[in-house]
Amino acid sequence: xxxxxxxxxxxxxxxxxxxxxxxxxxxxxxxxxxxxxxxxxxxxxxxxxxxxxxxxxxxxxxxxxxxxxxxxxxxxxxxxxxxxxxxxxxxxxxxxxxxxxxxxxxxxxxxxxxxxxxxxxxxxxxxxxxxxxxxxxxxxxxxxxxxxxxxxxxxxxxxxxxxxxxxxxxxxxxxxxxxxxxxxxxxxxxxxxxxxxxxxxxxxxxxxxxxxxxxxxxxxxxxxxxxxxxxxxxxxxxxxxxxxxxxxxxxxxxxxxxxxxxxxxxxxxxxxxxxxxxxxxxxxxxxxxxxxxxxxxxxxxxxxxxxxxxxxxxxxxxxxxxxx
Length: 324
Known about the structure:
Layout lengths: L4 E7 L6 H9 L6 E8 L5 H11 L3 E6 L4 H11 L4 E4 L5 E2 L3 H11 L4 E9 L5 E5 L8 E3 L1 H9 L11 E4 L15 H10 L5 E12 L12 H21 L2 H22 L5 H20 L6 H15 L4 H6 L1
Parallel strand pairs: 1-2, 1-4, 2-3, 6-10
Antiparallel strand pairs: 4-9, 5-10, 6-7, 6-9, 8-10
């Protein structure tokens, strides 16, 4: 028998979408699954819907808990997961019927611990509005974990998400998502990939991501988002500095600087002055880090980035339109 695979679905205020999500998991061509539905204190009909599914299919496990956020819900699911492999699916998304089958086969064929697929972005009417591929050609590609991290830092890898992948459960034996923070996937991204000798990416876009205005990442600017954003980047830089990892320290500083510029350009008018000053301070700090240690950096890219930094620091509002 093929190994048990655990699929963890955190649930909160998604009664409109939940059945589509769960039905897509129960239709999987890979049969040996446990689907863990974590009701994160949802105030709508989600708890009842979860119980109905549990009564219909013995592959479903339901946990009802006090609201603690996305990370806490995932962690509770990880605590009870019995599978040799684990996947995460957001409760307003759904997956292709061969989603688990294709990821598992790729993982087994290449003897890796992580398999990643592309995604299709859909709107509320289920119309595909965009696609994100994780391969250049229509064939599987292999990378080391460090190569994946470097690609993400250099803007060549856009799927910094827990979903859209299948993992060996050993990766999450001790690792958990940070509670009470947004950007939770970015916080664990390095820990998940850093020590992987091989990660397989498949050419199929078989995860369907619903982009809705009222989702966590669809809301307007909030102060806590800003604070979580700062902390995430500071932790990444401190981590690679402590390890004296020149290979990744350079791109993480450059990436932090680029994203800070973009963040300020997009959110500057909505930000309060203390947060804006903190962000500008970060831009200045990492701007000088690039030129203080030029042997770490690509000079051409550094100069282009420097121009953007100066424009933002001079409050050129037109940058936002050109840069994004």
